[in-house]
What we know:
Blueprint: H1 2-22, E1 31-33, E2 38-43, E3 46-47, E4 53-54, E5 59-61, E6 69-71, E7 95-97, E8 102-107, E9 110-117, E10 123-124, E11 132-133
Antiparallel strand pairs: 1-2, 2-3, 2-4, 5-6, 7-8, 8-9, 10-11
Amino acid sequence: MSKTLLLSFTLSALLGIALSQMCGNCMKNGVACVNQTHFKVCVNQATLPGNALYCGDGKVCTSLMGAFCFEGGSDVETVCDEQQDCPSCSAKSMFVCTSRTTFQMCDGTKMQKEISTCPAGLFCTTNAEEICVKECKLPNGKPDCTKDAP
């Protein structure tokens, strides 16, 4: 029984690693999940340029064929882990991204109340010359924060 339990645990861990590695990569169903609720269309195993598309309320991005956005629930395996936590203010921060497209000014280690939004088609990053940049100029190809909203 302990061998079966160990084998089951090992397979679950490997499946979790495989699923997390698929996040952002083109899959057999023709999309790349960029987070739990957004995806990009793939052609020839490359994502098309432009913004990620929203799966819809209550739906999650999966590797399922023909139904890459599926009603979320305990029986559905998502491709991406939970959305990454957004950075917080530090003594060195002037701004922090509070979602993929919003940011706030820092006052020491506290965020000021006003939320600023990047212009349409731009993403938030504190690792470039400007805080709002086109997707192709994002360091590592990802915004600082992948949350949809602050």
